[in-house]
Amino acid sequence: MFADRAKIYVKSGKGGDGHVSFRREKYVPNGGPDGGDGGNGGSVYFEVDEGLNTLTDFRHIRKYCAGNGQDGGKKNCAGKNGEDIVIKVPEGTVIKEAESGQVITDMSGDNRRFLLLCGGKGGNGNQHYATSTMQAPRYAQPGQPAQELELMLELKVIADVGLVGFPNVGKSTFLSKVTNARPKIANYHFTTLNPNLGVVDLDDAKGFVIADIPGLIEGASEGVGLGHEFLRHIERTKLIVHIVDAASTEGRDPIEDIYAINKELEAYNEEIAKRPQFIAANKIDMIYMEDDPVAKIKAEFEPKGIPVYAISAISGQGLKDLLYDINNQLEQMDSKPIVFEQEFFPEYHFDMENEPFTVVYDEKEDAYVVEGPRIEKMLSYTNLESEKGFQFFQNFLKDNGILQKLEELGIREGDTVRMYGLSFDYYK
Fold first, then answer.
1. pLDDT band at 28 (very low <50, low <70, confident <90, very high)
2. Are 368 and 417 in contact, with CB atoms under 8 Å apart?
3. Which of 120, 141, 150 is nearest to 7 (CA)?
């Protein structure tokens, strides 16, 4: 089975403890402190490996730990740093915090290496704490603790176009005809168990990447069949091509099939269902009925702005027009790949839990002022111009009790709230 989802546990290294010791040398009866510093703990990195295309390895190894920093020693000897761990994943892997399901990072595009968890800083030895009044400190700093997270890894293929359609409508045949992909093709249901990728090369045109998304049947959005296993692969596609059996060789109604698949796409993710669509009415070489089924499909969907193309994946009839029109549509769209924005920030989660903040009313400015290291760090991590970033900002205010404190101070709708140069009106 194609592995595109895995749950793993990761942990950075603990910082080594600082050491308490004093010089003990001949003729130096009262030697000063010489305790060494602890080594830094190892960090956890993720890195894209071009040679990987599944998450199979994570089914066998589920725990990944960086090395701990070594404790400091006497004679000012610093402890050795713990070894970093680099976890390699295929391009397109989305890393999420397992409990909340929030995105930490998307290993796509320019993001080839990502620092997920920092190792704990090593503690200072007692040599750092000697003063004129305390010349023999008998204490040292402990190393910072390790950081740990449970992660959900999801592989979402990177393609411009997603092929959808019920089993046995000719998607694999279509893909093999128009791209360099060589999927296994057989005349039975669910022959395709892997999302197949192929590159469409066109004369005098840029071309594009196309993916065959298997497992779509009614109920797929609820996990029926293989739906949940593969629907995630269509999330990056900019455009959707429905392939239907226009000849109804298995007795299915192509119009009902299109509506059924659109229903599953909408149930899984409304944004996906809103993306541009093309309909490829396949198997026209097998149409022997008097009534033209392609004309019926066109009459149903073209008034809705969805173009319909009569094709034969086997003979190649109609493919050229379809491919060039798909390419023209893609050229009018944003060329940047779809990359999922960060929603969960490990730096905030670990570094800011104990950071202070204040919420006060400034009578002179007639504004409520929210300040403190926790607020300043949160703003530095958050892109308020993005929808998800602003949503994270709102959740932060609620989860940290800031909204409650504002209400306790008597804030009303329309009052001004200031945070480090950011001003906004308060509304519930």
1. low
2. yes
3. 150
